[in-house]
Amino acid sequence: MDPRAIGVFDSGVGGLTVLKALRDRLPWESLLYLGDTARLPYGTKSAEAVSAYALQAARALVARDIKILVVADNTSSAQALGRLRAAFPDLPMVGVVEPGSAAAGHASARGRIIVIASESTVAAGAYPNAVRRARAEARVTQIACPLFVALVEEGLVDGPIAEQVVRHYLAANFLDAGEEERGDCLLLGCTHFPALSPLLRRMLGERVAIVDSASTTARAVEDVLESRGLAAPPGAPGVIRYLATDSPERFARVAPIFVPWTVTARDVEMITLE
Amino acid sequence: MDPRAIGVFDSGVGGLTVLKALRDRLPWESLLYLGDTARLPYGTKSAEAVSAYALQAARALVARDIKILVVADNTSSAQALGRLRAAFPDLPMVGVVEPGSAAAGHASARGRIIVIASESTVAAGAYPNAVRRARAEARVTQIACPLFVALVEEGLVDGPIAEQVVRHYLAANFLDAGEEERGDCLLLGCTHFPALSPLLRRMLGERVAIVDSASTTARAVEDVLESRGLAAPPGAPGVIRYLATDSPERFARVAPIFVPWTVTARDVEMITLE
């Protein structure tokens, strides 16, 4: 039993989908979320910059006495997890790439897995590698879908524009694809994308497995806490705190897109990373 | 006559539309472009952060001996130009907000001016204020259009998705508006938006004036250089150099969206701002 908080790090607010998944699965755990909002998005930045930023963020969370680090940012999970583990060898860590990839490997019927993600996550190639570790014969296709992020941030997660954009990115591999070529599993490789799940489910039909890395990551965190005896004692719901590197007001304004509870600017502490 | 370069500062690559407008209008001028790509976008950051970043960028350009500073970034133009002028009182400076606003004030027939911009530019309110300085009785409506930025960066500047998004943002003030309420001038208050001009022209019709801040800013720069005797001597085309705070490769890959000439990663020098 360990009452310390789970640290969750993201480049911005999208990682709140992971926070929500953790809250749903592990209500007794206290959660400390750090969004590096002053420097988002990481997706367009070099691997060197991303590693440096992730190390700074991890240091800030470790200084606040976390028991496990969840790297909710896809770019950091893909490019910096090795460096983070080397820098903090005693701290359990879970990224979002491995759990989602393993789940997709299991969920896919015929091994035709389509990964949708940001441009840089696609370029890094971490998802295909991780999926193949879980299922060696999988055929993995990646599609960079930057417009999905903008749609979610605008709250346009349904309606004709969202449908057209889904069609734009996914027609070739799902809607217009022949039976043989069609994907049978869609892996959401970006923290923003769970907001589009209902639309994707409706458009792609019931036969496509949709795997999101937020809930699979929460399950992986639960496994680690249990196996290491680090779970919080049951009782009152855990405390949720927020750190951000830029305006608490904007953080609070965007949060409702990703979590169903209220976040006010006073709940968010602004810090500097360096 | 002054052969020194014109310094152009932007938070990323969108300011290349201003660079192109300067090149078109002032071919003998050497141009030094600085994109703070490691920290883009500024639009989601606090006014304090934006001012600090803009001062660092200006310092880097001044250290490279520019004769005038063009602040191509809308957020910095709206929020930091006063601070920049105070910090460098002897350096001529032109932002993108004033020239576009003045031109819109003149171009509008009935004074119904619609400003489209990023969320933060809209929140800052600099365009309505500047338009009213040029034309006191103007009725100015602002619309935040973040999806336009994502569309341009995806190269989706035409076709059904772009049309639907234009309709989403502009139907109420143009396409579906009554004669009385309809805008008669559209001011593009974001450096990315000139890429959408042809589509906007086609959808809004010939009777709407479309004013882009890139070309109006280039005209303002020409005025300043002429009135101060700072123009470059005519002769060979000026040299164009690029500085960026993150990956030259990505800078070079995205540049063709905004300029018609070739930019290779070797043309881009990576620097650190602090």
Write up this protein.
2 copies of one chain form a homodimer. With 274 residues, the first copy, chain A, is an alpha/beta fold. Chain A folds into 2 domains: 5-95 and 215-270, Rossmann fold (3-Layer(aba) Sandwich); 98-213, Rossmann fold, CATH 3.40.50.1860. Chain A has 12 helices and 10 strands. Chain A has helices spanning 16-25, 47-63, 74-79, 81-87, 97-107, 119-124, 126-134, 146-153, 160-175, 197-204, 213-227, 248-254; strands at 5-10, 31-35, 66-71, 93-95, 112-117, 139-144, 185-188, 209-212, 240-244, 268-270. The first copy, chain A, has a 6-stranded parallel β-sheet, with helices on both faces. A 4-stranded parallel β-sheet of chain A has the order 6-5-7-8, sandwiched between helices. The longest helix of chain A is centred in the first third of the chain and has 17 residues, at 47-63. At the A-B interface, α8 and α9 of A face α8 and α9 of B.
